[in-house]
Amino acid sequence: GAVVSQHPSWVICKSGTSVKIECRSLDFQATTMFWYRQFPKQSLMLMATSNEGSKATYEQGVEKDKFLINHASLTLSTLTVTSAHPEDSSFYICSARVVQGRVAKNIQYFGAGTRLSVL
Amino acid sequence: DAKTTQPPSMDCAEGRAANLPCNHSTISGNEYVYWYRQIHSQGPQYIIHGLKNNETNEMASLIITEDRKSSTLILPHATLRDTAVYYCIVGNTGTASKLTFGTGTRLQVTL
Asked: Considering only CA atoms, which of A107, A115, A118 is closest in space to residue A37?
């Protein structure tokens, strides 16, 4: 299967600082990537859809000015958590959608996730 | 997208087949059934998907009922490494499609 690399895997930062998380598709081009957040013992919640060369689409309730998404190339999307606070501590996971033929089947390959702890 | 219902947890003995059910009674004609799994503290992993025909790959088999209102994911010979949360997701294709994760089934494979 396709490989998605996410970096860093674990980050600790002080309250008020910004943290950038990178998501790369290693062996395929991804026009669309997704960012999820997962709190302990809960399911994944979609935060935003990242489209190459255009603005991200955020889910309801997700602050776009706090969670900045950039998808500048077909293999890289970044999520920046700005002015992080303890309540932003969570497991952040990215994915990239694979396109098969002319129909974008909804198959996503996921990164290993980034565990963010804000002190 | 249609909603799915899965049992919260299941146990399976190692070496036995694990049969994970999913109910999706409100599925529409152009929606696919997708299965993903998430091993603890890792990103989810795509397993298999189907529209109406049964599907098989190197990981699992997917059996979809004729009325498409339910499906079963089959792991033919479960191992301890198959212990994970399994998510059944129903969704469209196309550039606007996305995955909505429910609570899934926590499968525990035991010796």
From this structure: A115
Q: Which residue has the tokens 């013992």?
A: A41
Question: What letter represents residue A17's amino acid?
Answer: T
Residue A105 contacts B where some CB pair is shorter than 8 Å: yes
The answer to whether A105 contacts B95, with C-beta atoms less than 8 Å apart, is: no
Is residue A18 a contact partner of residue A81, using CB atoms and an 8 Å limit?
yes
Cα B27 from chain centroid?
15
User: Are the C-beta atoms of A30 and A111 separated by less than 8 Å?
Assistant: no
**Residue-by-residue pLDDT tens, chain B, 111 positions:** 669 999 999 999 999 999 999 999 999 888 999 999 999 989 999 999 999 989 999 999 999 999 999 999 999 999 999 999 999 999 887 777 888 999 999 999 999
